[in-house]
Amino acid sequence: MKSVKKKGRQRRRVALWVFLALLILLIGLLGYGAINASTLYVRRAEVYVPDLPSSFEGLKLLYVSDIDICGINTAERAAEAINRLQELKPDVLILGGDYTSYSLLELLNRTQDAKDSRDTSSVCEEFFSAIREFPAPLGRIAIVSPEDDAAALEPVMRESGFQPLINASIGLSNGSDRLWFVGICDDHPSTIAGLNHFQKNDCVVCVAYGPSCFPQMMTLEASDSGPWVDLALAGHTHGGQIRFFGRSAFTLAQQEQKFLSGWNRETGIPMLTTTGLGCEACNLRLGSHAEAWLIVLTNHEPDLSA
Questions:
Q1: pTM, whole model, 2 decimals?
Q2: Does residue 32 have a pLDDT over 70?
């Protein structure tokens, strides 16, 4: 009898230690994920763009997407992260949409009506106001995502010195040379087709809310045939944000899985999907990093023999 009781106590003790070990592991993972989410990496790339006019050689683009203000990632904190990048001295600042996100608590408690009626304009106004002095001598450009309130955001962007590119294009001129920026804010085929009014020798940088736009963007041709896009940028995937054994805890569309993060050049056109600045629902990252991209454009073909 004593032996049975002793074995019972031993099992309970083992179970307690296993529980404590798992609890410590969980706390450690959450702590690591929180630190990882708040650590912003600056990625750098020099991108060969054959159609780049010589007067724009060495142009520096700073691209930051998926601000996702929610929870501890407040508007003030997100703006501070952006403003710390001033030391990179970009010529053009590009924001890629998704300015707010529902926190995990809001997602658990909201109804569809609550989702449709939530007002985020004051949060976005605080964020854009805090970065209005960001120095980018050749321009500050911002697109929106389908989840953003474009009608409310457009005047906020303009008041803060940003050029809204909401399914529109804008030309950056330097004498007779011109570099085009196109903002693609949804993946409707008619939207993308309607923005394609370029010739193959035009230099066009497309900024899309997400990589689901990439396939159509690359299959459409310029008005005189040939590719119309020279560089494509997108966000929205967060690089999976929380990934275990290569699988994301978040549901991603097929094209988002294909272009999850980083550079893809399978079409011959450089296409980048950034993991973004903020997080969806909870400020945690496992298997992905928060990042901003400093992209230097060049029309000098790289020496592959070096």
A1: 0.89
A2: yes
